[in-house]
Amino acid sequence: SMAAVVQFTFNPFQENTFIVYDDTRECIIIDPGCYTAAERKELSDYINKEGLSPVKLLNTHAHIDHIFGNRFVYDSYGLLPEMHAGEVPVLESAPQVSAFFGVSYPDPSPAPEHLIEAGEIISFGNTQLLSLYTPGHSPASLSFFCEADRFVLAGDVLFYGSIGRTDLPGGNYNTLINSITTVLMPLGDDVQVYSGPGPATSIGYERRHNPFL
């Protein structure tokens, strides 16, 4: 049975939040960026309508637009965020970063209990995701690869015709390009890429057309 990936676009930064579920109806929530009451309702309404049972909350990285909804997911489903240890300082800086961007910071995210290591297998339902270490846009971004169903949730590392910005604290252009070329590209041209901004793409399309590669 194939896992389904559902995309929502939330908050002033137009960030993509994902729900991944399979026929067991267990689901994971990735990068909940829901910021307004209407956005929070959109996320929970979908979960209710589809009869899903959220079992994990994953953050590819901890930039504010990807963690605005962490507290809501915790309050609603009792799930603490999971991320790489290297993203915890980014998470802790969220109030200052929000002030810098001139957006009000919602209720702070709970601290992660479980920190995800590179190479860890994340299981839910009948689905397994492999965590891949893809830093460069942020200090310790993870991408989540479903080998069976040929997709990767890449956060702000690689996206349609572009790459993540590297001018934020902890960003590094050469590190990012290395993550893309040595970790994501070898996954295979058929692999669908679900990104933090914009539409889905594929490894093959980006290999052929991405001006940064």
Describe this structure in words.
The structure is a single chain. The chain has helices at residues 37-49, 64-67, 70-77, 88-92, 94-101, 173-184, 203-209; strands at residues 4-10, 15-21, 26-30, 53-58, 81-82, 121-124, 127-133, 142-146, 151-155, 158-159, 162-163, 192-195, 201-202. By secondary structure, the chain is of the alpha+beta class. The strands form three sheets. The protein has a six-stranded mixed beta sheet. A hairpin with a 2-residue loop joins strand 6 (121-124) and strand 7. The protein is globular and about 40 Å long. The model has no long low-confidence stretch (mean pLDDT 97).
In short:
With 213 residues, this protein is an alpha+beta fold. It has helices spanning 37-49, 64-67, 70-77, 88-92, 94-101, 173-184, 203-209; strands spanning 4-10, 15-21, 26-30, 53-58, 81-82, 121-124, 127-133, 142-146, 151-155, 158-159, 162-163, 192-195, 201-202.
* Percentage of residues in strands: 25-35%
Strand order of the largest sheet: 6-7-8-9-12-13
Q: Give the fraction of residues assigned to helices.
A: 25-40%
Number of helices: 7
List the helices and strands and how they pair.
Elements: E1 4-10, E2 15-21, E3 26-30, H1 37-49, E4 53-58, H2 64-67, H3 70-77, E5 81-82, H4 88-92, H5 94-101, E6 121-124, E7 127-133, E8 142-146, E9 151-155, E10 158-159, E11 162-163, H6 173-184, E12 192-195, E13 201-202, H7 203-209
